[in-house]
UniProtKB/TrEMBL annotation:
PANTHER family: GLYCEROL-3-PHOSPHATE REGULON REPRESSOR, HTH-TYPE TRANSCRIPTIONAL REGULATOR SRLR-RELATED. This is DeoR/GlpR family transcriptional regulator. The keyword Transcription applies. NCBIfam families: PRK10906.1 (NF008154). Keywords: DNA-binding, Repressor, Transcription, Transcription regulation. Pfam families: DeoRC (PF00455), HTH_DeoR (PF08220).
Length: 251
């Protein structure tokens, strides 16, 4: 069976049953477990299914993927984006680093910098950044999520006290009309505070976010100064032609 036909069959089966284990799919499609796992990873990266340990479920517009899975998706693209962002940040700058696996990739890319003042609500990023002794790292207070993100009213209030040079912002989805979307209302409030407290906001996202759906609106692309991504889908290209946002494609 060709890969494209197999992928379509997987999507149809997952849509029909809601959830199927890897073993179920192996039996249905008569291929090896390794083949099914590769197929599920590809389909999950395209947001056509939701990857779970041991199987797959139909994607949701109200819930994000598991953190461990998100960290693996498009890792090489995220690293390219991170390296380009790091080139724009001078030594001695001040910046926010947001929740998300792409902002975490930026944190790693910044480790060769000197004397950065960093405020973050991302516990994973803070742990990575502490390797550089010249950095001044401040953690925002609030409610700690399982994925290391910190959100809530206390987080918004804390971030709003600052005015920093850059805001490194992640996002879960970008609609064809330029709307910036996420899954968690409380996380969106924190992102909005980062935008308002940054002299320049750098949105960092791989191309898969242009085909995803989420239910909470943060704003629109024109609210940020830069968009760093690895590829621009046709669905958003028309909007970007008239947008004020500077586009950086990290190929």
């Amino acid at each position: 069976m060709k890969q494209s036909i197999r992928h379509q069959k997987i999507i149809e089966l997952v849509a029909q049953y809601g959830y199927l284990s890897t073993e179920d799919l192996v039996a249905q499609l008569e291929v090896s477990p390794q083949t099914i796992r590769r197929d599920l990873n590809i389909l999950a990266e395209l947001d056509l299914i939701r990857r779970h340990h041991g199987g797959a479920a139909f994607p949701s517009s109200v819930e994000n993927s598991d953190y461990i899975d998100r960290k693996q998706f498009f890792s090489s693209q995220k690293n390219r984006i991170a390296r380009e962002v790091a080139k724009l940040i001078p030594n001695g700058s001040s910046l926010f680093i947001d929740i998300g696996t792409t902002p975490e990739a930026v944190a790693i890319a910044l480790l060769e910098h000197k004397y950065l003042r960093i405020v973050t609500n991302n516990l994973n990023a803070a742990h990575l950044l502490r390797q550089n002794e010249s950095f001044d790292i401040t953690m925002a207070g609030g409610s700690l999520r399982k994925d290391g993100g910190i959100i809530g009213e206390a987080t918004v209030s804390f971030i709003s006290q600052f005015r920093l040079d850059f805001g490194i912002l992640g996002i879960s989805a970008i609609d064809s009309d330029g709307s910036l979307l996420d899954y968690d209302y409380h996380e969106v409030q924190v992102k909005r505070a980062i935008i308002e407290s940054s002299r320049q906001t750098l949105l960092v996202t791989d191309h898969s976010k242009f085909t995803r759906q989420a239910i909470v609106r943060l704003g629109e692309l024109n609210d940020v100064e830069y968009l760093f991504t690895d590829k621009i889908p046709p669905s958003i290209s028309q909007y970007l032609q008239n947008a004020k946002t500077k586009l950086v494609v990290c190929e």
